[in-house]
Amino acid sequence: MSGSGTRVFVARLAGTSVFDPIGDQVGRVRDVVVLLRPKGAPRAVGLVVEVPGKRRVFLPLTRVTAVDAGQVISTGLLNLRRFEQRPFETLVVGELFDRTVQLADGSGSAAVEDVAIERQRNGDWLVSKVFVRRHRPGRGGLLRRRGEPELLDIEAIAGLARTAADAQGAALLLAQYDELKPADLADVLHDMGATRRMEVATALDDERLADVLEELPEDDQVAILSGLERTRAADVLEAMQPDDAADLLNELPDDEQAELLGLMEPEEARDVRRLLAYEDNTAGGLMTTEPVVLGPETPIAAALAHVRRRELTPALASMVFVVRPPLETPTGRFLGVVHLQRLLREPPHESIGALLDTDIDPLPADAPLMIVTRRLATYDLLAVPVVDDERRLLGAVSVDDVLDHLLPEDWRETDEEVHPAVTGAQPVVGGAGSAPGGAQGGGRRG
Question: What are the percentages of helix, strand and coil residues in the chain, rounded to 5?
């Protein structure tokens, strides 16, 4: 971005801190909202700002008083209503980056890699420059993405305004969110339109998509899974935790559920079928069939290696469930648990069978949700074992699964109010911006 702040490149703006007039940071820029017009340069109307609590809100550019290196200064108060994109609006990072455009001189096509917005004398912000990389024909006339980079005036670009059917490739968009945790990426996907959400979900690998699906509201989960090719959907279900896969399959019609189970690997499908047999709000319906299960003769060093597995949640990594063979659920007789803290205090060559905590009573599979909750709370546990009538370990219920069922169904979609300290005052709605020109959208989300 330029030192004067009159021209800003969006790729550099993304991630920039936003400050209020007294110097307190209120969030970070995640995207820029523009209006693509049939004639004239596209007009930038606001910033998508992520505030504490991972909420994304709209900041009109009429309320931006300065854009300097590494910071955006706003005036007035932020409207803390969740940002909702309107049909006539376009997100630069989310939709324009990597979009294929035609060059107005007829010399070929190019991919958009960055966009510059520039403040005019009347206070409006217009798209003035587009950084593109030209396509070069390869063998057979196919286009190769490696080409010459150029900074062009907006007038030199044709076809920037496109229909939803001609949306950008998802690769560059995913690169913007590569380091996000699954829950944060799920929040990003939830805010997208249905078409864009499906494009990004399809571009994710199976493991990453499985992690993200586990964090999405049920409606989004069903829409994405139903939109995938059937064998791909089965692969993603296999990558999910069995209890999460069972919860998702429960939301599908019976014929679709049966089809996907038939496409899954038999062993993976077996665990999911077992979980589908239990009522939702019981220990059996809540449990996972894949906790850390080991025999009593296992050395502490080996047990610690098991709990270090990256795919384990912190709750399931907090304890080892010790059983007689077989070690696959349903196991042999359940003997007790060994807590992670105990493992860390004892010599690594010691067998875990000598460290058993046998005071934690396991739950039957039909134990209702409130009994599961009380057991976790009574013993300050992050997970609790579930056994059958012969005391064979069936699985474990972790505290995160219990919370999912105790919270309202729409909890993933409902943002907690950001504390007034974020803006220094209570949230307000809209209002006209103080910048000259009063660009459209100054308070339109009120």
Answer: 35, 25, 40
CA-wise closest residue to 151 among 187, 110, 182, 120: 110
Assess contact for 203 and 232: CB atoms under 8 A.
Answer: no
Residue 213, Cβ density class (10 Å: 0-12 exposed, 13-18 middle, ≥19 buried)? buried
Identify whether the C-beta of residue 291 lies closer than 8 Å to the C-beta of residue 381. Answer: no
Calpha distance 332→342 (Å, rounded): 24
What is the CATH T-level fold of the domain 293-406, as seen in this structure? CBS-domain (3.10.580)
Distance separating alpha carbons of residues 158 and 202, to the nearest angstrom: 28
pLDDT greater at residue 386 or residue 14: 386
We find that the CATH architecture of domain 1-176 is: Roll (2.30)
As a whole number of angstroms, the distance between CA 90 and CA 162 comes to 10
Non-local CB neighbours of 334 within 8 Å, separated by 6+ positions: 321, 322, 323, 362, 385, 387, 391, 392, 393
Kindly report the pTM of this predicted structure.
0.57
User: Which of these ranges, 152-156, 201-205, 410-414, has the smallest mean pLDDT?
Assistant: 410-414
CATH 1.25.60.10 region(s) of the chain?
Answer: 178-277
Tokens representing residue 365 in the block: 């599979």
Share of the chain above pLDDT 90, in %: 54
Mean pLDDT of 206-220: 91
Rounded-to-integer distance, Cα 359 and Cα 331, Å: 20
Residues 341-361 as b or e (16 or more Cβ within 10 Å = b) = ebbeeeeeeebbeebeeeebe
Do 284 and 394 touch, CB atoms closer than 8 A? yes
Q: CATH fold of 178-277, please?
A: MgtE N-terminal fold (1.25.60)
Average of pLDDT values for 149-164?
Answer: 80
Give the amino acid at 445. Answer: R
3-state secondary structure of 19: strand
Q: Give the H/E segment covering residue 247.
A: helix 242-250
Kindly report the average pLDDT of the chain as a whole number: 84
**pLDDT, average across residues 258-276:** 94
Closest among 194, 147, 197 to 170, alpha carbons compared? 197
CATH 2.30.30.240 placement within the chain: 1-176
